[in-house]
Amino acid sequence: MYKILVFGDSFSNIFNSFKDPKIKVFKYKGATAKGLTKNDNINRKDILKNIKKYKDITGCLVFVFGNVDLHFSYYYNLLLKNKFDIKEIITSYVKFVDSLPVNKNVAKYIINIYPSPVLQKNIPSQLVLYNIFKNDFILENKELILEHSNDELRLKRLYEANTFLKAECIKHKINFIDINSNIMKENKIKSNFIDPSIYNLHLRYEPQLKYLKHKITKCKIINKCSAKASEKYKKQKILSLKKKFYI
Q: What is the DSSP string of 45-69?
């Protein structure tokens, strides 16, 4: 019986690391918060379908979106000279979560947008590896990308987005989860959260679990992920990356 339903981009996969049978994760690869605001969006439709399917047994709903918007869509719109308004996206995203037809005793949570651990110099290559743009186009626009990728600007975008996201959650009485306060110190990501890959947008899951477990207060989470399994993953990941020449 599922008590916690998690919907999100690839960052939502962290909840599978708990190995708690009460948790059901719906991961939408490359999904944006902006996409959820469109009525014909396939992810939006799937969320509505599963909310209805598990309506009677759900205790908590958790949403993990906005990472693709801030870390990839920003550059996509920058290079194509399109409008990009993260506040507008967040406003519609939170309204969608608020509008979901669930019982009053169901708790809703929205997790903050994560910081990017990728160094400024590696952002152009990351955009190619994540299939945001082709390599030739990235090379043509490399200076512009780097200009918008220094630590100060990225932190400013992150802080402004999460400050606004938190305010919108408060307005709609949705629980806002600030995990960044646990993984960052003095505006930098703590080393034990950084993945071995220099291009990986995701942070290591295992060190975050103990914090997330206590932030989902309405539903009790059992963490079955062992420290041994975490170290095994790290060693396998490093070996895999060496074969691909990514480290």
A: HHHHHHHHHTTTT--EEEEE-SHHI
